[in-house]
Amino acid sequence: MKVLSIFGTRPEAIKMAPLLNAMEAEQAIDSRICVTGQHQSMLQQMLSVFDIQADYSLDVMTPGQTLNGLTAALYAALDPVLEQTTPDCVLVHGDTTTALVGAMASFHRRIPVGHVEAGLRTADVATPWPEEMNRRCIDQGAEWLFAPTPRARDNLLAERLQGSIYVTGNTGIDALHMTARRLHADTALRQSIDRQFAMIDSSRKLLLVTGHRRENLGDGIIELCQALRTLSQRDDLQIVYAVHLNPAVAVPVRAALGGLPNVHLIEPLDYLAFIRLMQRAHIVLTDSGGVQEEAPALGKPVLVMRDVTERPEAVAAGAVRLVGAAADSIVHGVSELLDVEALWRRSARALSPYGDGHACPRIVDALLARPVDEFTAGDDLVKPLAGRAQRRAPHLAAPSVTLPAHRV
């Protein structure tokens, strides 16, 4: 079976990496890789971390490009790749423009599509924009729908789609397990990464921040900066903000927060360093989808700068709270977790409603028409899973303990 995986952004590379490894180990699969370069510099960083070599590397981004311009460029660049490769299956991930065009271009050529991380929904096509519409369109024509959770499966069933649905867990949790094992096993690597963060004061609680979603550009970023300026006045807190390279983020953030005491503005990190920094964080403040999945598995309370989320499982479990993008709401959410110890402890239970580290073998089994032992943890299993997580996967939060065995 010839499988072409198409992706173009940093988060896609992280979540596709363990699946690419799983397919590479499977003799029955001829795995090919096409990267579009939608996040060119950050994408190459991730490929290096996971030692991934692309068969096709496109460069579709141009300065000031519109979404329609990017979409047109992707169609033009991907169609010759599909014609030359003639895959039996195309895999796309998530909800990016690359994923949308990869799926539609394949559909136009009658090539079956597998959608990794299918079924995520907010029920509002404007939030997040354009991602919610992208994933709906991909799911309409996909042959294999790899839902990360039972709730995502239920969303797909409600839409009466034609594809076959498999509840696999999220491949991002597979990547997290791989990385935690690597950090645990390599003391020199951990120490090398920690030297990058020599500015961190271990006597103060660490607030780790990421913020770059399209719907938060402009006023949302300004509100975030106002909140961080206020929070930076606390003596018990230090802030590390991994600033996205997008000028719409980097310029206002550095202008508003540069030089502030207790605020450290850093370049985007490679995946290993970011996971290590999350392990050291007290609270995570983000608008990222992937971080909403990773941080709860590390036992880190998460505040999400959005009003709705397509990943509600950890919200239901109490590990994630939606605070929106208003400065006052952000300050209140962070301050409450800092000041109310009982609330922080309830939010900091290590749990993983999004996966168990075995999503990729399940996807491979489905592609090869083998029986699939589906992932079952969802809202109904979140509480017992939280207790098991402390016993089964303590390496995620504390890399000094013995690691369990994993298939990936």
What does this structure look like?
- This protein is an alpha/beta fold and 408 residues long.
- It folds into 2 domains: 2-167, Glycogen Phosphorylase B (Rossmann fold); 187-347, 3-Layer(aba) Sandwich (Rossmann fold), CATH 3.40.50.2000.
- It contains 17 helices and 13 strands.
- Strands 3-2-1-4-5-6-7 form a 7-stranded parallel β-sheet, sandwiched between helices. Strands 10-9-8-11-12-13 form a 6-stranded parallel β-sheet, sandwiched between helices.
- Helix 1 packs parallel to helix 2 and helix 9 runs parallel beside helix 14.
- The longest helix has 19 residues, at 67-85.
- The radius of gyration is 20 Å and the shape is globular.
Q: What fold name stands as the CATH topology of the largest domain?
A: Rossmann fold
Determine the number of helices (DSSP H or I, runs of at least 4 residues): 17
Count of DSSP strands: 13
What's the CATH superfamily of the largest domain, by name? Glycogen Phosphorylase B
Task: Provide a short characterization of the protein structure.
This protein has helices at residues 10-24, 40-49, 67-85, 97-108, 131-141, 150-158, 171-185, 187-196, 219-231, 247-257, 271-280, 289-297, 313-317, 327-339, 341-347, 359-367, 382-392; strands spanning 2-7, 30-35, 56-57, 89-93, 113-116, 144-147, 164-167, 205-209, 237-242, 263-266, 283-286, 302-304, 320-322.
